[in-house]
Write a structure and sequence with these properties.
This is Epoxyqueuosine reductase. It holds the Pfam family Fer4_16. It comes from Anaerotruncus colihominis. With 296 residues, the protein is of the alpha+beta class. 30% of the residues lie in helices and 11% in strands. The chain folds into two domains: 123 residues, Threonyl-tRNA Synthetase, Chain A, domain 2; 100 residues, no CATH class. It contains ten helices and eight strands. The strands form three sheets. A four-stranded antiparallel beta sheet has the order 1-2-6-3, sandwiched between helices. The chain has a two-stranded antiparallel ribbon with strand order 4-5.
């Protein structure tokens, strides 16, 4: 069974992939895509895609958000792989998932032999360290599980020490304190939350725990050509609306990015000022969107 799978994965140029049993990833996460899980699912094919394409000094967003929207790129690749697998495994179902998956992807990747889980909760892979996206194909085919990978995390604790807010602690994670989470929040922020965005200097994300991890110093660059086509390491008022139509953070919308920019520049008090709101409204009306500035 797995020889045919390997033929497809090599043909798709997937260099980091593995298999785990479906029942080992239960229970599923309570998300809408859970309804897409095929009846009688038996295996999960997990695929990693490196996203690191360079250092980009002066960036004000997380590394993963520099390239074009990974959802679009990965979904197309996994759909193509699923089509080939359906042709080889006649009668079996293959359903791809990216990001909003009912499968706990870090755990699934670990079970599929693609690495181990670091103290910051991220997957550490031998090729891409934690600088990778995870995609899955859930199938009714009974595939042989991959062997577990050798540990990479040395439990050095540098990720925990680098966390500026104490969100990371040994054995736990407080999402409400995470700077990356705070940059993505809608609505009115507390004084402390605004201070975290200002001190962090990132319009989107944080990267402190990831950058501190010694395993990431050996991370290889991405082998996904599409990630190199339109890198945008800096978000500013002039390009925020356009980037929301092209990048992974577009789901959150331009107002949040503009708010964060103004906080960093020391101009924000109670959200976006009147002039910024008027400019944003004009841009949205011009594009014919609904104000959320979502891609696609």
């Amino acid at each position: 069974m797995n020889s045919r799978l390997e033929t497809v994965m090599r043909g798709m140029a997937f260099d980091e992939w593995g298999v785990c049993r479906f029942h080992d990833v239960l229970p599923l996460l309570p998300v809408r895509s859970k309804a897409r899980i095929p009846q009688g699912a038996r295996s999960v094919i997990v695929v990693l895609f490196g996203y690191y394409i360079g250092d980009f000094p002066g960036r004000n967003i997380s590394y993963y958000a520099i390239a074009d929207d990974y959802h679009t790129v990965l979904r197309a690749a996994l759909e193509a792989a699923a089509d080939r697998l359906r042709a080889l495994y006649v009668g079996e179902q293959f359903v791809p998932f990216v990001d909003a998956s009912p499968v706990a992807e870090v755990r699934a990747a670990c079970l599929a032999g693609l690495g181990d889980i670091g103290m910051n909760g991220q997957l550490l892979n031998r090729t891409y360290a934690s600088r990778c996206f995870i995609g899955e194909i859930v199938t009714t085919a009974a595939l042989e599980p991959s062997r577990r990978a050798a540990p990479l995390c040395t439990r050095c604790g540098r990720c925990i020490a680098a966390c500026p807010t104490g969100a990371l602690r040994p054995g736990s994670f407080d999402r409400a304190l995470c700077r990356s989470h705070i940059t993505q929040k809608k609505g009115v922020l507390t004084d402390w939350e605004r201070a975290q965005i200002r001190d962090g200097g990132f319009v989107w994300g944080c990267d402190r725990c990831t950058d501190a991890c010694p395993v990431n110093r050996q991370a290889q660059k991405s082998r996904v050509p599409a990630f190199y086509e339109h890198p945008e390491p800096v978000v500013h008022a002039g390009n925020a609306a356009r980037l929301c139509r092209e990048k992974a953070y577009g789901w959150r919308g331009t107002p949040v990015l503009l708010r964060n920019l103004k906080i960093i520049c020391g101009e924000e008090q109670d959200g976006i000022d009147t002039g910024a709101r008027a400019a944003l409204r004009a841009d949205v009306n011009k594009q014919g969107e609904d104000g959320r500035c979502q891609k696609g």
